[in-house]
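Readers outside the structure-tokenisation community will struggle with the description of the input data as it stands. What matters is that the chain and its backbone geometry are given together, residue for residue. For illustration, here is how one protein appears when written out as sequence plus structure tokens:

…
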Amino acid sequence: TRKSWKKKTPVSAATQPVAAADNEPPLWQRMWQARKVDIAIMLVAIGVLTGIFFFQDFLVKWPRAYERIRLSYLAFTLLWLGWYEHAQLSVVNILTFFNSLRGDFRWDYFLRDPLIFILWSAVAAALLFWGRGAYCGWLCPFGALQEWTNRIARWAHIPQVRVPFWLNQRLWPFKYIIFLALFGLSFGSLGLAEEAAEVEPFKTAIILHFTREWWFVLFAVGCLAPGLFIERFYCRYLCPLGGALAIPARMRMFDWLKRYKECGSPCQRCANDCPVQAIHPEGTINPNECIQCLNCQVLYHDDQRCPVVIQKRIKREKFLALQSPSMVPEPKRKPRVLVTVNGREQSVERKLAASQAASTEGDDQ
């Protein structure tokens, strides 16, 4: 019996860790359980953004309040989502996903980072609803960094450069070219494509907080510097992730950005005020370039800046003025004629009244 016990001992000892490992949940489930608070905050943030889009017609009527909401949300995106949680999407995620479809696709690989997975799920849904603007304009930490640095530059009275629209159009394709080059390269070598994806300064500026080799830091600063003069320069012309998200942007189901028939012809106010110049001179909004900042919708309701609304306000004010009691004409009075009686001036009306009273007294007597 002792020999048989000795023979069974190593077998049972070896099987115990295996059994314990089998009882443990998968790694991605443990990651999600460990980050319940972060997941809850992320879901609330996405819910708030959804509410902003659903109630945008109401919010944009209060420009100052809306601007504070937007800047606060961008600060949250940069500080918490980006610099604290490192939840910065990248074109590498897209390249990895498509390459996994060619080989051994496993969901658990993509589920290991819950915030990135939730973000990509939200972005996929937003692409069908509103286009790429939900992410690029609100949930991208590097985009938020660009907008905040440009705001600071404006407050410091740094002159802004407005790119001529014809040149703006010619610069748009560069981000698509960069994405397609990386996408094609990934089919040959995913590792090489990931190295080439350093054209995105996200890792340096957001993930590593600029604590990296000097050439990476210099490149990241070089991507941010033009944004001091041209708002969201990198987003508009160089971002391969933005190019990838813009490709399916025309598939969106809803177009909630309102326009007047006068927009573009003759009015150019929205086109001139669009921070990323996504509005064509003829008044149409390019969904591939729009970041859903809702600046044009603020103007749409502004009766102090939008010429169309200004004319409506003036007509309304004239109509109300005509309806006010002060504008009702008074009844015309007969002209008074003064005559001199016993050295005193009296009006004809008063003299007639006095004579009528005297005649009445005579009749009574």
Remarks:
- Residues 2-23 form the longest helix (22 residues).
- DSSP finds 21 helices and two strands in the chain.
- Residues 34-256 form one domain.
